[in-house]
Write a structure and sequence with these properties.
Elements lengths: L12 E5 L2 E5 L10 E5 L16 E2 L5 E5 L10 E5 L12 E2 L25 E10 L10 E7 L9 E6 L2 E10 L19 E11 L5 E8 L8 E6 L2 E6 L3 H7 L9 E5 L13 E11 L8 E6 L4 E16 L8 E3 L5 E20 L4 E3 L11 E7 L11 E9 L8 E7 L8 E6 L25 E2 L11 H8 L3 E9 L7 E10 L2 E3 L5 E9 L3 E3 L6 E8 L22 E3 L2 E7 L7 H4 L1 E9 L2 E2 L4 E5 L1
Parallel strand pairs: 20-38
Antiparallel strand pairs: 1-2, 2-3, 3-17, 4-7, 5-6, 6-17, 7-16, 8-13, 8-17, 9-10, 9-16, 10-11, 11-12, 13-14, 14-15, 18-23, 19-21, 21-31, 21-32, 21-35, 22-29, 23-28, 24-29, 25-26, 25-28, 26-27, 29-30, 33-36, 34-35, 36-37, 36-38
Length: about 625
């Protein structure tokens, strides 16, 4: 049976070929999966899987495609059956799945002529497995499954076994312990306590049930930071790291890429399992970009930026011209002689301004004085949804020291963890800034993501781990622990005074920036203007705005006594000034024109001047 179904190129193409579905995705239509395949074996021919739909299996092992006579509905008509009745130390002749069209690994990972296609940073594989003998133990049964590139250059390792207590899953990860390796082949990366660490991660599994294993790998650039997660029956049971550092330091080679799964029978053979063993089905492979989610949560800064509010009040004025000058500016006076009675009412209003003032961030640890309030500072992030340590993708801080430097265990991120699931903190993992091993010079760490850092700056002693631990050590120890909070801490003032200009931070993609220091007007309220008899001293100010008058004289010549000086008189709740027209311009020939006259209070011309013309 041969079926091909094609979708439009923008959506990717799905090919279903005899029970093997292969998806390749191009362009932006799928931001997560670059390549994927699903194998259910129904289109395979019974017998060796070798040469069928991209699978390889050339050795003498008990790895066969078999009809589903086991009554497992989800396994369709055929499955892959594997046992360790026959074993060897070989790799290339064992059973390899078909390869993805896009490999996964670090950018410098070696495909060795086996894996190919664009390099993706994420790989995942899942499959179902079941015992062919659900009624009892198959003593010694053990088959491994490893992400591989097609030749046995494995980057991780899982083992499915049968024990008296039930089925069991084991994991084996390589860890470069302190002192860590540097350049390729560095003996510090393959000596001392550096080793593979086999670990049972799920046990007592029911032989009569189908179980699902899912393994994901996120390849981070640099050593000691790849993240491997394993789920059994949809439960995350283990986090660890890859075999990247084994290749770097024990083989002095680049890390490997992966695009397939190797099913391998090695070690002690169990001949009695021949014809039985485990059934494997519904194998799914994917590669693509690493998906980084941003965690929601709340930030707390201690000490908080100061926030004060102040109010100020001011009296505002506007003038209201009185007759004989028309309020609409249509008054025309003779220019030859006489005075103009300039009169104003004064209206006032109260303006209330509210100002908020934010103080600067004070992030300091001062031990040289007796003030205990400045002994420490912290910036704390509490996620609002559960997050595992292995899912904590970034911890960064943007800063510069204005006094001192890293010392006394600070600056550091302190991650509070719940290991036993009771909702309470069981201890902290401290991630130090600065240069290892003393962590004293922080000048190069501003903006650096310390999660995934390749050096030994992870202190997990509160949880039973090492002081000079790597990210890989922490993943293996507490990768599945729940993050309750993570805090950027400065408390090394007992060693030396520390002051930090902290300008930003990020925890698992949630970004904190300080409030902008300074003052901001937050509100202005002005009362309506109303006439007032509280008349402050006011000067008379005038200006000629146009040398050409308009119209003809329409106001009578006044012979009232003229005022002298620069201040208005306050009479009967109004300003009065008898303005001698000759004082505007001694030269009669040029005196004509348009004039404006203001009330000037405290050096400011009040709104609404009088306007008139001299003709």
């Amino acid at each position: 049976m041969f079926n091909v179904r094609k979708l439009c190129p923008a959506m990717g193409a799905l090919m279903l070929i005899a029970g093997v579905a292969v998806t390749t995705v191009g362009g932006p239509a799928s931001p997560v999966v670059a390549a994927s395949s699903t194998t259910n074996f129904d289109g395979f021919t019974a017998g060796s899987p070798n040469g069928q739909f991209g699978w390889s299996s050339t050795g003498p092992y008990d790895h066969k495609i078999v009809d589903n006579t086991y009554g497992i509905a989800s396994f369709g008509t055929k499955s892959l059956r594997v046992s360790n009745a026959e074993t060897s130390g070989a790799f290339g002749d064992q059973t390899f799945s078909s390869s993805l069209t896009e490999q996964a690994g670090e950018t410098t990972a070696a495909g060795g002529g086996f894996a190919s296609g664009p390099m993706q940073p994420h790989f995942e594989a899942s499959w179902d497995f079941a015992s062919t003998v659900p009624s009892g133990e198959q003593p010694g049964l053990a088959v491994s499954a490893s992400p591989d590139r097609g030749d046995g250059a494995r980057m991780s390792w899982l083992q499915m076994t049968d024990t008296p207590a039930g089925l069991q899953i084991n994991f084996n990860g390589y860890r470069d312990e302190h002192p860590t390796g540097g350049a390729l082949g560095d003996v510090n990366g393959c000596s001392g306590s550096d080793n593979f660490f086999p670990t049972p991660i799920a046990s007592g599994l029911d032989r009569a049930a189908v179980h699902t294993i899912k393994l994901t790998m996120d390849f981070l650039e640099g050593p000691r930071n790849d993240v491997v997660r394993v789920w059994v029956d949809e439960n995350l049971v283990h986090t660890d790291t890859s075999w990247e550092d084994y290749f770097r330091y024990c083989e002095a080679n680049q890390t490997r890429s992966v695009d397939s799964i190797l099913f391998r029978s090695a070690g002690t053979a169990a001949p009695a399992t021949s014809g039985n063993g485990f059934l494997i089905d519904n194998l799914s492979l994917r590669s693509g970009p690493t998906v980084i989610a941003t965690s929601a949560g709340a930030w707390t800064l201690f000490p908080q930026q100061t926030s004060t509010t102040s109010t100020t009040t001011a009296t505002m004025y506007q003038a209201k011209v009185r007759p004989p000058i028309n309020a609409d500016g249509t008054s025309n006076f003779p220019k030859r002689r006489g005075v103009i009675p300039v009169q104003f009412d004064l209206e006032s209003a109260t303006k209330t301004t509210t100002t908020a003032t934010i103080g600067p961030v004070v992030f300091a640890s001062i031990g040289s004085d007796t003030d205990t309030s400045n002994d420490y500072s912290f910036l704390k992030f509490v996620p609002t949804t559960p997050m595992l340590f292995a899912d904590l993708d970034n911890l960064t801080a943007e800063y510069n020291f204005t006094t001192g430097n890293c010392a006394g265990g600070a600056l550091r991120w302190s991650v509070k963890l719940d290991v036993n699931g009771d909702g309470f903190g069981d201890g902290n993992v401290n991630v130090y800034f600065g240069t290892a091993p003393a962590f004293t010079d922080c000048s190069g760490n501003s903006g650096q993501n310390v999660i995934g850092s390749s050096d030994a700056r992870f202190d997990s002693t509160q949880l039973g781990g090492p002081f000079y631990g790597t990210y890989a050590d922490s993943l293996a120890l507490i990768g599945g622990a729940t993050v309750l909070s993570t805090s950027l801490v400065l408390d090394g003032g007992w060693s030396q005074d520390q002051r930090v200009n902290l300008t930003g931070a990020s925890a698992d993609g949630n970004v904190w920036v300080p409030q902008t220091a300074g003052s901001t007007v937050t509100g202005v309220v002005t009362t309506p203007f109303a006439k007032t008899c509280a008349l402050p001293a006011a000067r008379i100010q005038w200006a000629k705005s146009d040398p050409t008058p308009d119209g003809a004289p329409n106001e009578a010549e006044s012979i009232q006594p003229r005022d002298s000086g620069e201040f208005y008189r306050n009479v009967d709740c109004k300003y009065i000034y008898n303005l001698d027209v000759s004082s505007l311009d001694p030269n009669l020939a040029t005196r004509g024109g348009t004039y404006r006259v203001w009330v000037n209070i405290a050096g400011t011309n009040v709104a609404n001047p009088a306007k008139f013309d001299l003709l």
